[in-house]
Amino acid sequence: MGVADVVYYTFHFQELRSIIQWKTWHNPVHERNPEKEPVSLRACFDLLDKTSRSFSAVIQELHPELLVPIALFYLILRGLDTVEDDMTIPLDKKTAVLREFYKTVEKEGWSFNGNGPDEKDRELLVQFHYVTEEYRKVKPIYREIINDITRQMGDGMADYCKRAADGKAGVDSVKDYDLYCYYVAGLVGNGLTRLFVESGLANPALNQRPHLQTSMGLFLQKTNIIRDVREDWDDKRRFWPREIWSKYVEDFDDLFRPENREAALNCSSDMVLNSLNHADECLFYLAGLKEQSAFNFAAIPQSMAIATLALVFRNPDIFQKNIKITKGSACQVMLESTQNLQKVCEVFTRFVRQIHKKNTPKDPNFLKISIACGKVEQFIESIFPSQDPKALQRAAAAATPLAKKEEDPAAAKAREEAKWDLIYMMIAVMGTMFVLSCFMIGMAWLFGARFDVAIDQLTQRFSRPDTAPAQTLVNKYDHGEL
Questions:
Q1: Which residues have a Cβ under 8 Å from the Cβ of 438 and sit 6 or more positions away?
Q2: What letter would DSSP give residue 323?
């Protein structure tokens, strides 16, 4: 921890407390045992730690049935993404690798060293033979699911790369934006759902609701795209759809000019609105997960996403630098999101209200954002009512004067009996105490207690002492010469 961190947490002690609580009190549902793993599998988890420590942590707490399949699923898709992101790979070679990736992951000893030396996750593909070795040991049904998702994602990425090479870089319509997010994230939600259901960790009904699976991925991806807008712009990439930003500026680069600050904020709120529309479906999806580790795995990223969405909403910093929620806030969110659906709903409510509070009538999206926030809260209220309907009915009945006239005779009789039972009980208690007191005083008197002396001493203590005898004695022996 650096000096800046010490200063920050001195003034944000609650966040420091959340970090300590997470480190101290968080107990994994399942724990991985590296000592029982072969060398190749340990190498895979080392690669997982290097590519994403946050995802690695939640993956390693998964149920043993899905621990290895999901870890390999993540590494395979990360390898695919590493090829797609590397602008040093020639287009023909890149598209060929992307389209054939689902086949090569099953080839013994396959690896790829065609990435540029500066590519962040280059080492993953160089050591990919560890992944292929362990992948061939996975159950066939799981391999079938992972292969299918990898094939679809590889084709989608190849199409996008070709489109960019043809001079059509960026995303034009909201429909294209949704399609891109589906290929890079929605398919992941689809694959994970199939794995959860196949392993018995989720309700099979989730397979019949593909829109919920898609929303899980799109909510995460769209939030990340909003947060990373400056980083992507610096890398000459544009994922915000023209259909949205063209309503506020003439050119996408104008969003980053200080003189267009208000237009940029309005544009970002439009993007947040597009992402926020998936929030209620994410909560609906989480209700279908039956096993705690699977729930934690899915809930933590969604809670992080809504926290990030509240952070970036009408925040001008996103156009200047890459911003993230603090570590203390992240630990607090993780603590709450690893309990149950009701706690996750409380997290969503808190951050949705932050968005609503930051919303301003000057924003052309003000009304739509207010409605979207209300929609999320309404959904949460429908599954976890803030008031018990039966209690409300009873309170309303008690407040109605006619209620006494129309009250059921049996209920009125029972209430009357309960009232007199309480009165009789109080009389019995007081009477018992009186009898016991008289008995104890009588026994004390029989054994020689002098109540008259006790009363006399009490009287003297609380009455003003008589000073006349003392004054007489002083006058009697008065020595005038002194």
A1: none
A2: -
Q: Tell me the DSSP string of 44-103.
A: HHHHHHHH-HHHHHHHTTS-HHHHHHHHHHHHHHHHHHHHHH-TTS-HHHHHHHHHHHHH
Q: Please give the structure tokens belonging to residue 88.
A: 């040093």
- Reported as a single tens digit per residue, the pLDDT across 141-162 is 999 999 999 999 999 989 888 8
CA distance 152 to 182: 10
**Cα Rg for the chain, rounded, in angstroms?**
36
Q: Averaged over 111-137, what is the pLDDT?
A: 89
User: Do 241 and 168 touch, CB atoms closer than 8 A?
Assistant: no
Nearest to 314 by CA among 246, 279, 242, 365: 365
The C-alpha atoms of residue 383 and residue 345 are separated, in whole angstroms, by 10
- What is the residue-averaged pLDDT of the chain? 86
> Residues 271-295: what's their mean pLDDT?
94
- Where do the DSSP E strands lie in 308-462? none
d(CA 202, CA 44): 26
* Angle CA 137–142–143, to nearest 5: 60
Active site positions, annotated: 180, 227, 237, 297
Name the more confident of 11 and 392.
Answer: 11
DSSP-assigned states of every residue in 94-163: HHHHHHHHHHHTTSTT-----S-TT-TTHHHHHTHHHHHHHHTTS-HHHHHHHHHHHHHHHHHHHHHHHH
pTM of the model: 0.76
Residues with Cβ within 8 Å of residue 178, at least 6 apart in sequence? 218
Under the banding of pLDDT at 50, 70 and 90, the label for residue 55 is confident
Task: Quote the CA–CA distance of 176 and 159 in Å, as a whole number.
Answer: 12
Q: Which residues contact 403 (CB under 8 A, 6 or more apart)?
A: 397
Sequence-ordered list of residues with C-beta below 8 angstroms from that of 373, at least 6 positions apart, any chain:
276, 352, 353, 355, 356, 359
Which residues neighbour 449 within 8 Å (Cβ) at sequence distance 6 or greater? none
Cβ neighbours of residue 297 under 8 Å, at least 6 residues apart?
58, 59, 61, 62, 70
8 A C-beta contact, residue 173 and residue 243: yes
Which conformational region is residue 382 in: left (phi greater than 0), alpha (psi within -120 to 50 degrees), or beta? alpha
Average confidence (pLDDT) over 117-141: 91
> How far apart are alpha carbons 217 and 183 in whole angstroms?
9
CA atoms within 13 A on the CB side of 456: 4
Residue type, 294: A
The pLDDT value given to residue 184: 86
CA neighbor of 109 nearest in space, from 128, 136, 82 = 128
- DSSP, collapsed to helix, strand or coil, labels residue 471 as helix
Position 182: which residue type? Y
CA distance 367 to 356: 10
